[in-house]
């Protein structure tokens, strides 16, 4: 897996009309070529690519975050809900849609030429652009070579094994949890990782459905995480696979 930290996000634009509450029609966004996983987050999320056999994760060099993990979240029910291609996610107040216009048309081809995959399925930023919430979608067999269609995140390995896919090399891993959510008559598992890379703090949630891996990540500079970490962590955990 290659780490992915692209250039800083452009200044926020007006909130896209495609951001909607559950009462509006779902907005479809095509496949995403990884980046919030390991997301293109640095200003988004580290970008995700096929895992490398040599990939390793640095042992935590510092004490875990001051706030205990899943107790440090808040309700997101009052936030706007964005519907994408097979997923939904809650968007923090005042965050704006910063998807580039070309991102909406990526994945479409009328003449049979090679389709350019999108980097993001969704991307939102704070008014100053320093805090970003993103979603990418990746075919699961590109993350772990297999002839079988992945139906659950556990098909990519245990929580510890999958960290080699989702956590960038050299990151300080603060916490890792498996979250189980009842959906209809089944229970879906999500993997949660919180880690630091350079001066960025990242909260990442991943889930699998129908052979696709959905990765939501929220990132901010370490200094800003002290004040906004609960909000950003809550946004990442709000990911729901439909």
UniProtKB/TrEMBL annotation:
Q: Which GO terms describe its biological process?
A: photosynthesis
- Tell me the protein's name: PsbP C-terminal domain-containing protein
Pfam families linked: PsbP
**What organism is listed for this UniProt entry?**
Dioscorea zingiberensis
**One example GO MF annotation:** calcium ion binding
Residues annotated as domain PsbP C-terminal: 84-241
Q: Which Gene3D superfamilies match?
A: Mog1/PsbP, alpha/beta/alpha sandwich
Report the InterPro entries cross-referenced here.
Mog1/PsbP_a/b/a-sand, PsbP_C
Q: Name one GO cellular component term.
A: extrinsic component of membrane
């Amino acid at each position: 897996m290659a780490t992915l930290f692209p250039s800083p996000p452009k200044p926020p634009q007006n909130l896209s009309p495609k951001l909607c509450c559950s009462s509006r029609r779902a907005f479809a966004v095509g496949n995403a070529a990884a980046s919030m996983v390991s997301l293109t987050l640095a200003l988004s999320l580290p970008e995700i690519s096929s895992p490398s056999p040599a990939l390793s994760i640095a042992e935590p060099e510092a004490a875990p975050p001051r706030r205990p993990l899943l107790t440090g979240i808040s309700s997101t029910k009052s936030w706007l809900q964005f519907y994408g291609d097979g997923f939904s996610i809650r968007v923090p107040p005042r965050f704006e849609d910063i998807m580039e216009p070309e991102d909406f048309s990526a994945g479409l081809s009328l003449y049979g030429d090679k389709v350019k995959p999108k980097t993001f399925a969704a991307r939102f930023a704070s008014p100053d652009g320093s805090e970003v919430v993103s979603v990418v979608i990746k075919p699961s067999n590109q993350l772990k070579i297999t002839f079988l269609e992945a139906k659950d995140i556990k098909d990519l390995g245990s929580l510890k094994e999958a960290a080699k896919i989702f956590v960038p090399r050299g990151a300080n891993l603060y916490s890792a949890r498996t979250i189980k959510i009842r959906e209809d008559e089944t229970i879906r598992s999500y993997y949660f990782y919180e880690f630091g890379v350079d001066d960025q703090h990242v909260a990442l949630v991943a889930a699998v459905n129908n052979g696709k891996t959905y990765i939501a990540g929220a990132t901010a500079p370490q200094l800003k995480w002290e004040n906004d970490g609960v909000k950003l962590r809550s946004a990442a955990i709000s990911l729901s696979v439909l």
